[in-house]
Each structure stands twice: as structure tokens, then as C-alpha cells.
Amino acid sequence: MRDSRWSQLYVSINPKGLIWLSGFTHQAMGEPDAYVIVYDPDMNVLGLQPGRANVTQNAYPAKPRGRHGGQLIRAYRLIREFNLYVPETMWFPRSFIDNSGTLILELHDVKAATTKKRKSKYND
Q1: pLDDT tens digits for 6-24?
Q2: CB neighbours of 102 closer than 8 A, spacing ≥ 6?
Q3: How many CB atoms are closer than 10 A to CB 1?
Q4: Residues 109, 90: contact at Cβ < 8 Å?
Q5: Could you give the C-alpha distances from 75 to 20, 46, 79, 89, in angstroms and in order?
Q6: For the whole model, what pTM was predicted?
Q7: pLDDT at position 83, please?
Q8: Cα angle at 43 between 39 and 48, to 5 degrees?
């Protein structure tokens, strides 16, 4: 039986630079109040490291989103700084937490998080 996205690591990013972590992912990271976002251009990988708001330098605050513990990180400036192209909302199916506690997001291995809009049966 397949696990739901709420019981495994789930992270998505959209063209506006909003990074969304599921409650499960946030708990697995130790529930920090901020994240440091790093980028490795050679490997084309984003990394999210736990940080502390107003303490850790360059940490982006994580704000609660939704009823199930999801967190939202506003990282538009960083996406532009790294010159990343995010054409649509995408999620990372093979995200994992490495030995140093960094959440690894492989940018070359993403899937569309949204489906195509259905045509209304009332419009011709």
C-alpha cells in the first residue's frame, strides 16, 4: 500500500518562491522556526538546514500553513539570486534528510504538483 503524501517527506516550490513543507517533513527536521537555504549549482540541489529566526544568519522564517502542521518559507529573493527557473508548482519526490540533518531537494528530479485545469462542460 502506498503512503500518503502526509506521512512521508513532502516539499513543493512555486514560481513565486514559496517553499511548502508538510507537517511530517517539518517534524522530521526538528520543527525549527527558520531554515537556511543553500544551493549547490554543480549538483543542482537545494538544501534546507534547520535554523533559528533572528539568531541564525540568512535564515528564512517558517510560518505555519494549514491545519496539519505545514510550514511556508518565502524564498523568492533567494530563487532569483540562484537564478533558478521554476515554471510551475513542483514537488520533490525523492527528497531526503542527509547525515548532517540537511533536507536535500534535487532540482533535476521534480514533478508537477498541479494538474491541468479541466474544461468546463458549460463553456464552448
Answers
A1: 678 999 999 999 999 999 9
A2: 38, 47, 48, 49
A3: 3
A4: no
A5: 10, 12, 6, 14
A6: 0.83
A7: 92
A8: 35
Q: Which residue has the higher pLDDT, 113 or 21?
A: 21
Q: For residue 72, what is its C-alpha cell?
A: 511556508
What confidence tens digit (pLDDT) does each residue in 34-82 have? 999 999 999 999 999 999 988 888 899 999 988 788 999 999 998 899 9
DSSP class per residue in the chain: -PPPGGGS--EEE-TT-EEEE-HHHHHHTT--SEEEEEEETTTTEEEEEEE-TTTSTTEEEEEEETTTTEEEEE-HHHHHHTT----S-EE-TT-EE-TTSPEEEETTS-EESSPPPPPPTT--
Exposure on the CB side of residue 37, measured as CA atoms within 13 A: 21
Give the integer Cα–Cα distance in Å for 63 and 70. Answer: 8
Residue 9 buriedness (CB in 10 A; 0-12 / 13-18 / 19+): buried
Pairing of the two strands 103-106 and 34-40: unpaired
